[in-house]
Design goal:
With 343 residues, the protein is α/β, with parallel strands linked by helices. It has helices at residues 13-24, 58-78, 95-104, 114-120, 143-156, 199-204, 271-284, 330-342, and strands at 2-3, 6-9, 29-32, 48-51, 83-85, 88-91, 110-113, 131-135, 139-142, 160-162, 169-172, 177-181, 184-188, 190-193, 213-222, 231-234, 240-245, 249-254, 294-302, 309-313, 316-320. It has an 8-stranded mixed sheet, sandwiched between helices.
């Protein structure tokens, strides 16, 4: 059995960020990932994610502002761009709440109409009289590069990263936690579970009820010149978002529209979701082929109110900050989870 200060279970974006944060505190950490890093079965794979300040809740605006500073710190350490600023657009019946939250936090924004959108951001095409919220700090996170940067930084600080190592069981003891795996066991002062859609099942074995609902979501990529395209969220039921994805075209997704699913099962993309996205692209963009170049799936791990779960149960720290909008906060959440693990 190997003795470490902390064990992190799950090597997606939150697990890698937490491992780095713990390592930077001088802790001896091991990160266990049941597949290969960057695998396509969970929530963190792919080339891009949206970064945005625009939320209807000032708390999330503040978190995004703090996260951007931490992303820039990681960029300086890694020597590569991880968050590319494009500006972002929001439309929908309650977007005024986003503007109020941005104003409360002193974040810049402006109201523009659909004609201005067409002039500034071809090939977007919105009704001329549309009320559109523009926020200049929004952009694209290079997702796979972000995970690689967190992991490299953690390993440089002394962390062990072990791939293809599934956790068989977790055993809390009076002063430590034992994590059992087929390739050997680990004992730590605490364990941080950032296992995404697998977290609920894993935590249930130690009688921690995680109130989440894993869903399999579909995203599609459309052939489009994205050199002048900002991120775009149309708030609704469901909300639809798009963002430029270098080398892949225009990435489009629906927010929490997929079925409840088991992450250990294989299911195809949702053809009906792809059809809705194709219709949306045809309506909102000009000169874009309605037939996607390709589609893929990813998991959301959803709470009822879409807020995050960051909590400690004895020596077990739970990090399930997903609900489909957690990626942008990774360096901040990783730091928070590290603080929970240490104190």
């Amino acid at each position: 059995m190997k003795r470490v200060d902390h064990v992190v279970v799950g090597g997606g974006i939150m697990g890698s960020a937490t491992t780095r944060a713990l390592s930077k505190l001088g802790k001896k950490v091991v990160l266990l990932e049941q597949f290969r890093l960057g695998h396509k079965r969970g929530s963190s794979h792919g080339r891009t994610r949206i970064f945005r300040f625009s939320y209807p809740d000032a708390m999330y605006v503040a978190m995004a502002q703090e996260s951007l500073e931490l992303w820039r710190d990681l960029e300086r350490e890694a020597g590569t761009e991880l968050v590319h600023t494009t500006g972002g657009l929001d439309i929908g019946p309650r977007v005024a709440e986003n503007a109020r939250a941005l104003e409360e936090r002193g974040a810049g924004y402006e109201w523009i109409d659909g004609s201005t959108v067409r002039d500034r951001f071809p090939p977007l095409s919105l009704p001329a009289d549309a009320e559109v919220l523009f926020q200049p700090d929004s952009g694209v996170i290079y997702a796979d590069a972000a995970i690689a940067s967190f992991v490299t930084s953690a390993m440089d600080a002394g962390a062990d990263v072990i791939e293809e190592r599934q956790v068989i069981s977790i055993e809390p003891h009076a002063r430590s936690v034992i994590v059992r795996t087929p390739g050997g066991d680990f004992e730590g002062d605490s364990i941080v579970v950032t296992a995404g859609p697998w977290a609920k099942k894993l935590l249930a074995t130690i009688e921690i009820d995680l109130p989440v609902r894993p869903t399999r979501e579909t995203v599609a990529y459309f052939d489009c010149d994205t050199s002048s395209v900002p991120t775009f969220v149309e708030w609704g039921s469901p909300s639809v978002y798009s963002l430029p994805s270098p080398g892949q075209g225009l990435k489009v997704g629906e927010h929490i529209a997929g079925p409840v699913a088991d992450p250990d099962s294989d299911q195809p993309v949702d053809a009906q979701s792809v059809q809705r996205m194709s219709e949306w692209v045809t309506e909102r963009f000009t000169g874009v082929d309605a037939e996607p170049r390709f589609s893929e799936t990813c998991f959301y791990t959803n709470t009822k109110d879409e807020h995050f779960i960051l909590e400690r149960h004895g020596d077990i720290v739970v990090g399930s900050p997903c609900s489909g909008h957690g990626f942008k906060f990774a360096p901040l959440i990783g730091r928070r989870l590290a603080e929970f693990a240490v104190d």
